[in-house]
Design a protein that fits this description.
Blueprint: H1 7-20, H2 32-70, H3 76-85, H4 92-101, H5 103-113
Helix pairs in contact: 1-2, 2-4, 4-5
Length: about 110
Amino acid sequence: MPRSTNSVASRQRRKKVMKQTKGQFGRRKNVWTVAKNAFERGLQYAYRDRKNKKRNFRGLWIQRINAGTRLYGMSYSVFMGKLHKKNIDLNRKVLADLAMNHPEAFKAIVNEVK
């Protein structure tokens, strides 16, 4: 007697991938072999870019802090060094937000470390 395959589970697995690729262009949305490859590649990009997003935001925060400190005659590296020496524990995300949206509060921090 031949071995039977579980076609219900196979169909469900394929339907799950096809549902994920809905909205893509061309055969990526409706041809199983192409859609499966597109889906797997999309997961790889998503994993990679979750890491890159953190890297990009850190760079953006550093640029914003640098621009804010330059207004008061100080560079980013000098500012961060003095900040750590004074034991002021504010992360770059908060400092960048203060530099952009609350310049008077950021000025107070800069004056504190000078």
